[in-house]
Amino acid sequence: EVQLVESGGGLVQAGGSLRLSCAASGFTFDDYAIGWFRQAPGKEREGVSCISSSDGSTYYADSVKGRFTISSDNAKNTVYLQMNSLKPEVTAVYYCAAAGPLFYGVGVCISFNVLSIYEYDYWGQGTQVTVSS
After folding, report:
1. CA-to-CA separations, 97 to 8, 13, 15, 52, 88, in angstroms, rounded
2. CA 61 from chain center: how many Å?
3. DSSP states of 87-132 as a string?
4. Disulfide check for 93: which of 46, 62, 117, 126 has CB 3.0–4.6 Å away?
5. Model pLDDT for residues 96-111, shown as the tens digit of each residue
6. Dihedral-angle region of residue 88 (phi above 0 means left; psi in -120 to 50 means alpha; beta otherwise)
């Protein structure tokens, strides 16, 4: 059974930091790209970032470049999203998702539309991130 379990959300003041975790199980971690998405109340779910553990490729939405960093621990089948300099407008439920299996070789996270929800096959339950002003 495929499982993606997010954790690390919470309430933080503007300017603060949070690190989200996504623990994956039930599939071959290296064959999948893991994406982070977020959904604010009344808004559509939007892509934030992507990472492939097979080649280390990453991708970021323009809105988070320079403030968010995605990484993976292959030994733990876990992907992290480090979020710094947080602003109230990033308040949302954050989801991780898995796309695959993918066999692009190199450049996995630039080889498909990584910020599209339709590219992902499995989803976690989400973790709430609230940034207060």
Report:
1. 16, 27, 27, 12, 24
2. 11
3. -GGG-EEEEEEEE------S-GGGSS-TT-GGG--EE---EEEEEE
4. 126
5. 999 998 887 777 888 8
6. alpha
Q: What is the pLDDT of residues 15-28, one digit of tens each?
A: 999 999 999 999 99
What's residue 17's pLDDT? 98
In a 13 Å sphere around the CA of 130, the CA atoms on its Cβ side amount to: 5
Contact 73, 80 (CB under 8 A): yes
Q: Report the C-alpha dihedral over residues 117, 75, 93, 38, rounded to 10 degrees.
A: -40
Among residues 132, 96, 129, the alpha carbon closest in space to that of 18 is found at 129
